[in-house]
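User: Show me a protein chain along with its predicted structure.
Assistant: Here is one chain, sequence first, then structure tokens.
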Amino acid sequence: MFRGIEGNCIDCGKHTWLVVKACRCRYCNEAYKREKKGLSKVRAPIKKVSDKRAKADIVYYTLRDVFLKQHPTCMINIQGVCSGHPSNQIHHSYSGKDRDKYYLDTTTWFAVEHNCHDWVHLHPIEARELGYLK
């Protein structure tokens, strides 16, 4: 059985037995197949934010700044949890499948400081009873 020659692979750099200057690892096989089809070796990375969401984010951050200026104190103000710091986060009462529908709807927002925001997400049953989650 012919194993080829021993050396470093030109694609992945691994020192192994080579067949036509490349080893038979998964990376090299995929690279060979892509090259044979005329495709580039490097794939474009997946976008972190979609174009649709990027447009919504521009509007959201403008609304967020205005909303936090209009509501400088925590709207939830849970006794024993709230530190009294100014509100610096937005809590969205709708989540899951309704998140996009209510993303820019300021009637579903609460201006909160981070201790109260953490409490809402750590105690979802109580928060739902109090109307902070839908």
